[in-house]
């Protein structure tokens, strides 16, 4: 990585580049990161008959989606929540801020560098899933696979950005870990229940998860979490359907005569026209918002706070 | 008259109701050697932290080399060497890589090897996986100061 860039004069690169490179190296030399990549492969490999019926050979690209949504969110958050607050506690933040960098530069370097550090091992695992899958289930569209890899990189960047933002505004590692666990519970584990509860309290309508109402508000709320937004985008790229569920659930949901709890636009809006607001590209917008907004808020506080 | 190297005007820092620094007016001229002495709690560290942009003032202002510690942090830190109080280095990062980070961020063309030779720490840098974290304070300061030439 640094080899090819070494040819470029540093003056043409941003000031924060050397620090970002150091952060990437820190992540890449951590055992946890590579363990996470192993988990992506092990938990991602989920061949199912319904998945094959729905996607054919593209099922292999779907494995990436499943692998990335199983342990990666928790793993990236756990490996990143201390990236700023830990340095603040130890004192190495003084070293970084003694360099000719603004505090915002430090946050950008953390986010960019650590994202690169996670993207590489996860991509290696994803490509392995794709290669093994291609041998086993046949060739799929490389373009769609590349799309899934890009969406995965964006999701990794979002997770790193959230952890970095939390880390920058907290004053102890205990609080930072509490905050990322809170995020994980609310936006990864329980989001569909929370979104449904919010919908019910707003509209007074109960939701049967086996047969949800055709309401843009409900489906809009559901895809506000980065986790479901990522699945919405990857399902779109795979041609699996318009939903924030994993493609394996979606495959059962969409199969004729099958019933499973889950939220798919196709089944809820069967026969009716789907509102434009539920276009899958909305998932990209949600991910971009999660990438920018928490960091921007954190930057505001981090720039003005005391760090010693 | 030239711009003072350090110039503070009513520089104040309060933490809640605790006053750490109360309206400091200080001018250190360029080329002047200035001893900054005082009893515990006098506000020495607070002043330095304010000048280095580690802490933001409650009131008043300061300039270093005519530059604002916050607005002009990049230009300023490019020109000064900083050996902070109670700092730490990165665990698992060798002395050579620390120097590389400083040199590349400052866009200087120094050679880590030459800098370490100058302070007599070449051996330590060559030891694989050697982090300055394990060094004694003297060596660590010697090492970091090798990378912090003042303007």
Characterise this structure.
The complex is a heterodimer of chains A (308) and B (151). Chain A is mainly alpha-helical and 308 residues long. Chain A has helices spanning 2-6, 17-28, 31-44, 49-55, 59-70, 72-80, 85-90, 92-97, 103-137, 142-169, 173-189, 191-203, 216-222, 226-238, 247-254, 265-268, 281-304. The longest helix of chain A has 35 residues, at 103-137. Chain B has a three-stranded antiparallel β-sheet with strand order 2-1-3, covered by helices on one side. The two termini of chain B are 20 Å apart. Helix content of chain B is 32%, strand content 18%. Chain B has helices at 44-51, 73-79, 95-106, 112-118, 122-126, 137-146, and strands spanning 6-15, 18-28, 59-64. Chain B contains six helices and three strands, in the order ββαβααααα. Chain B is α+β, with helices and mostly antiparallel strands and 151 residues long. At the A-B interface, α2 and α8 of A face α2 and α3 of B.
């Amino acid at each position: 990585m640094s080899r090819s860039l070494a040819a470029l004069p540093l003056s043409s690169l941003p000031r924060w580049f050397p620090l970002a490179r150091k952060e990437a190296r820190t992540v890449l030399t951590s055992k946890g990161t590579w363990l996470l990549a192993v988990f992506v492969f092990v938990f991602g490999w989920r061949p199912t008959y319904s998945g094959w019926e729905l996607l054919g050979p593209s099922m292999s690209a779907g494995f990436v989606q499943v692998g990335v949504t199983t342990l990666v969110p928790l793993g990236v958050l756990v490996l990143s929540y201390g990236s700023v607050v830990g340095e603040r506690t130890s004192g190495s933040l003084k070293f970084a801020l003694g360099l000719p960098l603004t505090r915002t530069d430090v946050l950008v370097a953390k986010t960019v560098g650590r994202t690169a550090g996670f993207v590489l091992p996860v991509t290696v695992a994803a490509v392995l899933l794709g290669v093994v899958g291609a041998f086993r289930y046949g060739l799929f569209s490389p373009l769609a696979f590349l799309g899934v890899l890009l969406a995965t990189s964006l999701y990794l960047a979002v997770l790193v950005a959230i952890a970095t933002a939390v880390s920058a505004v907290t004053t102890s590692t205990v609080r930072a870990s509490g905050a990322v666990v809170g995020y994980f519970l609310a936006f990864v584990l329980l989001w569909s229940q929370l979104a449904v509860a919010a919908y019910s309290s707003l509209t007074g309508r109960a939701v049967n998860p086996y047969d949800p109402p055709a309401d843009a508000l409900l489906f809009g709320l559901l895809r506000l979490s980065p986790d479901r937004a990522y699945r919405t985008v990857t399902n779109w790229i795979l041609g699996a359907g318009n939903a924030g569920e994993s493609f394996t659930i979606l495959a059962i949901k969409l199969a004729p005569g099958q019933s499973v709890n889950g939220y798919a636009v196709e089944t809820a809006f069967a026969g009716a026209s789907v509102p434009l607001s539920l276009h899958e590209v909305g998932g990209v917008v949600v991910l971009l918002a999660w990438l920018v907004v928490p960091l921007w808020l954190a930057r505001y506080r981090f720039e003005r706070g005391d760090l010693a | 008259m030239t711009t003072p190297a350090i110039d503070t005007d009513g520089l104040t820092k309060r933490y809640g109701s605790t006053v750490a620094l109360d309206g400091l007016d200080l001018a250190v001229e360029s080329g002047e050697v200035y001893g900054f002495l005082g009893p515990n709690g006098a506000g020495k560290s607070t002043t330095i932290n304010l000048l280095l942009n580690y802490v933001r003032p409650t009131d008043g202002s300061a300039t270093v080399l005519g530059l604002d510690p916050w607005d002009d942090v990049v230009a300023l830190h490019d020109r000064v060497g900083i050996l902070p109080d109670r700092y730490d280095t990165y665990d698992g990062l060798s002395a050579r890589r620390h120097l590389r980070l400083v040199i590349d961020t400052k866009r200087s063309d120094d050679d880590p090897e030459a800098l370490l030779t100058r302070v007599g720490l070449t051996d330590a840098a060559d030891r694989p996986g050697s982090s300055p974290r394990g060094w004694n304070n003297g060596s660590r300061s010697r090492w970091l100061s090798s990378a912090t030439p003042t303007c």
